[in-house]
Every structure is written in structure tokens, then in C-alpha cells.
Amino acid sequence: MEIKCIAIDDEPLALQLIREYIKRFPAFKLLHTFDDAIAGAEYLRNHAVDLLFIDINMPDITGLELVKSLQTKPAIIFTTAYKKFAIDGFDLNALDYLLKPISFERFEKAAEKVLDYLEFRDVQKKTQEQALFVRAEYQLVKINLHEIEYIESFEDYIKIHRTDEKPVMTLMTLKNMLEKLPPDQFQRVHRSYVVSLSKIRSIVNRKIRLTAAEIPISDSYADFISKWRKD
């Protein structure tokens, strides 16, 4: 796991200390440090960052105000010389709050929290990616990706055909559904069909044989046959 991080603090000595501590953790990659909060905020809006070390008490904008302004928030560790800001920091779901001067032992504990949190978040994300949710019959229906055989288009609607469950019809275009599916698991083979690659049993005469259906391959997607054979 590589954790991309930046540090924002108007005190050069505090930034230097964070640089030195971060070097001791191979998983942490320090992208940049800023002694100017405005410049740091601009960087965050234009770059993907996993972890932000940020001082609370800065002249142009406080660390609390900066974090509140971010639409996409990385994991946060606040650093400050003032205990009174701790509650405000945790209200913003900060992972930790380091009081200056920061000892390495205390920094190490914060780093372990970050590693545990990001590892747990990645596991959750991967788990969630194995399913999707669609609206059907006035309710939200969970569709496990491994259940999907193929998806059929009916103009503005699609029907999701599953191996052991009844099909689910939902208001969505095939194009929009395809954007939600992992490309290494699903492939469009026709204007009206997307198939699960793991469910293909054979391809004969431009027809894909699935468990309980045959799906045609259109001229526009004829190259799928050669790609499938190579895989």
C-alpha cells in the first residue's frame, strides 16, 4: 500500500520534523509540503491525496476552515500547539490530533491509525465493488456481480438476467450500466446486450451460449470473438 500525503504548516521547523518522521514509514509517500495554507488548498483540489497533515492555527485560513472547504477529503491528522482545538478537529472526523512538539512515539501511533484505517477502507471498497444497487419496483435492489449472466436493453430500460434469481428491470441505459461494471468482467457484444465474461460457455456462429440463453454478437462487436479466444 502506498499512502500519498502532504503537510501544511506555517512553521518551517514543524514541516521539517514531519518530513523526517515520514521517511521512517516506507508506505508513506510525501508528495509536497506547504507553509502557505492557500497554496496547499489549491494543491488538494487538483491532486489525489490519501493523507493530510495540517496545522490548525495558521494566519490566512485555519486548518479547520481549509478541511471544511474540501469537497473530497483525504484522511486528516491535525497538528497544533493548542489543546483547545482538539474537539473541533475530531468533529471533522480527523483520524488523530497531534500536539506540538510532536514526539516520534506519538507520531508512530498516528501513523498506525492511518494504516489500519486505509486498509479497512480499501477492503470495504473492494467488497462494495462486487455488487451494485438499482431501483426496481419502488425499492433499492442489490445485485451481486457474480450472479449476472447478461444485461438486455429495452430503450430506456434494462433487464438484468441472473443465474439463480429472477431478472430485474430498472430505468437505466445500457451505456450507463456498463460504466458501473468492471471492464475485465463484463463486455458489450451487441447494441442490446452486455454479457458476463465468466458466464460464457461457448461461442458458435456468432452466438454466445450462456447457462440458459444465447446472445447474438453484432457486426460492430465481431472482434470480441478473437479477443475472447485469446483470453
Query: What is the fold named in CATH at topology level of the largest domain?
Result: Rossmann fold
The named CATH superfamily of the largest domain:
Response regulator
Which second-level CATH architecture of the largest domain applies? 3-Layer(aba) Sandwich
The averaged pLDDT comes out at 90
Span between termini: 29 Å
Strand content: 25-35%
**Helicity, as a percent range:** 25-40%
Please tell me what the overall shape is. Answer: elongated
Describe the protein's architecture and organization.
With 231 residues, the chain is of the alpha/beta class. It folds into 2 domains: 3-128, Rossmann fold (3-Layer(aba) Sandwich); 131-230, OB fold (Dihydrolipoamide Acetyltransferase, E2P). It is built from 7 helices and 15 strands. The protein has helices at residues 12-22, 37-46, 63-69, 86-91, 104-128, 174-180, 224-230; strands at residues 3-8, 28-34, 51-55, 75-80, 96-99, 131-136, 139-144, 148-154, 157-162, 168-171, 186-190, 193-196, 202-204, 207-209, 214-216. A 5-stranded parallel beta sheet has the order 2-1-3-4-5. Strands 10-9-8-12-11 form a 5-stranded antiparallel beta sheet, with no helix packed on it. The radius of gyration is 25 Å and the shape is elongated. The two termini are 29 Å apart. The model has no long low-confidence stretch (mean pLDDT 90).
List keywords for this structure.
single chain, elongated, Rossmann fold, 15 strands, alpha/beta, 5-stranded parallel β-sheet, 2 domains
Would you spell out the secondary-structure blueprint of this structure?
Elements lengths: L2 E6 L3 H11 L5 E7 L2 H10 L4 E5 L7 H7 L5 E6 L5 H6 L4 E4 L4 H25 L2 E6 L2 E6 L3 E7 L2 E6 L5 E4 L2 H7 L5 E5 L2 E4 L5 E3 L2 E3 L4 E3 L7 H7 L1
Parallel strand pairs: 1-2, 1-3, 3-4, 4-5
Antiparallel strand pairs: 6-7, 8-9, 8-12, 9-10, 11-12, 13-14, 14-15
